[in-house]
Amino acid sequence: MAEHANGHGEGDVDPARQAGQLQQEVARLRNEVDRLNNELAARVDTKDKEQMTLAEGTLFISEVEVRKAIARQLRNGSRLLQASKCVYLLHDGKNELVAQRPALGLEEEELALFRTTVGRGISGEVFRTRKAARIDRIADDPRSGEEPLARIGAVNGIAVPLLLQIRDEENRVIDSRAIGVLWVLNSRGGGFTADDERLLTVFARQVAAVVGNAKFLEELLGQNQQMISTFENLPAGILFVGEDDRIRLVNNAARSLFKLPEGRGVGEAYYRAIEHNRTCETLNACMRENEDKGAEVPFEIEGEERIYQIQAARVRGGSDDLNGVVAVFDDVTEVHRLDRMKQEFVQTFSSELLGPVASISGFSAMLRRTAEELPVPMRGEIHSIISAECDRLRRHIQDLLNVPRVEQGIRPHLSLERFDFAAMVKRVIDREAPLNTLHHFHFEAQPDLPRVNGDEPRLEGVAYNLVVNAIRYSPDGGNITVKVYTQDNTVRVSVTDQGVGIPAEQREEVFRKFARVKRADERVRAGRGIGLFISRFFVEAHGGQVGVESEEGQGSTFWFWVPILGPAAIIER
Predict the structure, then answer these.
(1) What pTM, to 2 d.p., does this model score?
(2) Which of 224, 246, 271 finishes a domain?
(3) Which residues span the domain enclosing 256?
(4) Integer Cα distance of 190 and 206 in angstroms
(5) What is the pLDDT of residues 120-137, one digit of tens each?
């Protein structure tokens, strides 16, 4: 009845008694912490105590400072616990614990030996369990053989985990993460005590804080270096001007663009450092007006005019105050050149198409109106002209369709047959000679040329492109000599003109898509810019080569050769 009156059964817990026990335990722990702190203070002089207190909350700003701080902590630990060796091991992020520099009392060779896996040895167990280990005789501990403790002269020691504290936004510790193990070895006082172990646990927190700062610094420096490297190596120029009109950032591309030597620019007013009126006008307009600005402006670089696109944008802070203007400079010269080439190509190709179409239309109309009045031979000649113009029109269209195939690397389908190569080339000349009365054609063919195994229409197109090219770049007419001969089991064609020639730097350029020789003589009629490009494609598909020999003002010789027996291997599309 007394038990029921008190309201507690035999198995119940008295809340008042439990609260009293908890208060006693808290008081005991506080006393223990105070005692350890007092002992720590007694063992450390005033200067070292201040350094240790600062260590946990300090963010070091250089690798040198980090190393000095760690070395100072290790010296303090060794002195506190009267140890002859002090070293820390860090987890490598995979499966190993590796001794780090700096270390006290270990030679470089010993330090290099000191490593183990997280699943072995005393170090591995301390790391895994996050519990300290004090060993009076290391040689007698079976775990010591799993790591090189004996080889570094360890007799006794204490190993404690290095726990990096994880804090929330209010700086409260919410978790911890094991990053390594701290060792003190070989007590000069005869052996390590339980108090030494507890003190080293407290001390390890300082070391973990310094190492954590070091890791944070390493990541920060790595990210910073990566950003700097990216910024400096961007092909586009970047310039940041503060709200005070002074340059704050400028990368290598912008320095080169504005010819700013190293050390110049940053800190100077942009209108004094940059000697380019259009750039200054764009920056000023963006700074003074409440909108971003863009412009395309010319720059002279190494004697050549280049077009740059400037994009200037206002940069604002969190309170929407103007922080400055960032400008990006992109070289768009090639874009302009391609646009111009595209327009020229469309115009040229249109005229190339309109020529045959006009001829076909005109002669067809003539036949319709006067077919019965014309004699039979003249009607046959007109039909031949219409047929030739249809062939010309077909070649133009086929060349245009072949451009994407060449760009994608698609091998052409070649219809191989044996044919009279010299007759094919002569046919091209006979077709073009009557249409170009300013030029005198000379055709030379080696006697008894063997028949060639190849795709006759494709190779005829190559010969046509070379002959038309010679006509086009000989505005004053003159001789055009076409030779056909054999050499080393190949049949070769050369087309020599007395035209304007090709500058040395453009000789390879003429075989590229849409490329044409820069003409000093305005009488030179521009071509489509794809004839030689397509010709190289089909000649190489036959296993041959095409090229040019030229001297500016002295004419050119274009040539190509293909194997007489045909390509060694044909890859069908």
Answers:
(1) 0.43
(2) 224
(3) 235-331
(4) 26
(5) 999 999 999 999 999 999
